Amino acid sequence: MKFFIDSGDLDEIKKAAAMGLLDGVTTNPSLLAKGGKPMKQALAEIAAVVDGPISGEVLAVDYEGIVREGREIAAIHKNLVVKVPLIPAGLRAVKTFAAEGIKTNVTLCFSGNQALLAAKAGATYVSPFIGRIDDTSHEGMQLIEQIVTIYSNYDFDTEVLVASVRSPTHVLQAALLGAHVCTIPFKVIEQLAYHPLTDLGLAKFLEDGKKIPKG
Length: 215
Ligand code: G3P
What we know:
By secondary structure, the protein is α/β, with parallel strands linked by helices. The protein has helices spanning 10-18, 29-35, 39-49, 63-74, 88-100, 112-121, 130-134, 140-154, 168-176, 186-192, 196-209; strands at 2-6, 24-26, 54-57, 80-85, 104-109, 125-128, 159-162, 181-184.
């Protein structure tokens, strides 16, 4: 499973990249708004740090606007992926981008049927928002199970990118279900390596290590 970081914070992205396990980056307008930089500048700075797919989202909601903004985002750097909302105009634009060789990440996916449409349109990635489904008292991971099954039934090339991840358990479940990618907030990336028994065991080994005769 590929690890992306879900962030618009360059410092966080650099720290995650330094761990050596980062495959890409996803951003969204809410994340980039926190950074206070123009979108193209922010995306170019991220592309200079991470050598992998970097999703930048269009703000237009009409077909012509999505295509115009998407081409501009794709022109920023060869690794840029155009993030497009899962609406009819967005799906139409995804088909256009696919014909032009521009990679896409279809975002705000909340149903198996929406994911089916994204794949049929030729999306590179589809982003189901798991945490936001959990927030409505439904089981977000059931959607991942559905999409993985649908894509495998028809051999679609579209990759399932698990988004709106809130906890290490989400990452574990995504991996068990065979999702291609998980985009993870920095805080959760840090939590992944932690286990109290690892810390306790290490403390004991270090203590006992001091008792080994030197020489
Ligand atoms: O980038 C899209 C997604 O990961 C947003 O997550 O936590 O705002 O639902 P969240």
